[in-house]
Design a protein that fits this description.
CATH topology: Rossmann fold
CATH architecture: 3-Layer(aba) Sandwich
Low-confidence stretches: none
CATH class: Alpha Beta
Shape: globular
Radius of gyration: 15 Å
Number of helices: 6
Number of domains: 1
CATH superfamily: Class I glutamine amidotransferase (GATase) domain
Amino acid sequence: MSDVVVIDSGGANLASLGHALTRLGVTATVTRDPALIGAAQRVLLPGVGAAADAMARLESAGLVGVIKEIRAPLLGICLGMQLLFDHSAEGDTACLGLLRGRVEPLPASPQLPAPHMGWNTIETCADHELLTGLENQYFYFVHGYGVRPVAATTATVDYGGAWTAVVRVGNVHGVQFHPERSGAAGARLLENFLRCV
């Protein structure tokens, strides 16, 4: 059994996430094996790309039910966070339904193009152990869809209005940004997640 498992969702950020964990002294297992995922002490669900494609990959691998049954700390990253919600407007996609809410397209404007790409600070709106020691830090975002603040939101990012940046309900955590590309702040967030109880 691996203590830390990264679900192989087919996303392009699998390698960079693995490197970020290695720098923290953690050897994570990247897998689609339901038994390994179900037995892990920490599970990360990364994602890059389209919601419909990602959900189709999870369904074809028989992982949707497995993810819904995870009781260990679970961290969704970028698209992985969006998949934790009920529904995505991207491809009119039913998602995992672990969190209440809908993923919507970011409105584009000349001042704020979509997708949102770049470094932004986040605004904490509830206590969350992922954010310990991370006040006024910058994180790296790349996303064209997002979730307006919901009950599970613990931090927001301002991009033409407030969007969910961090969420938590019970053992389920999510971040819209990429901690594996966010330097020291991202490393601290991943370290905080590895300490979650």
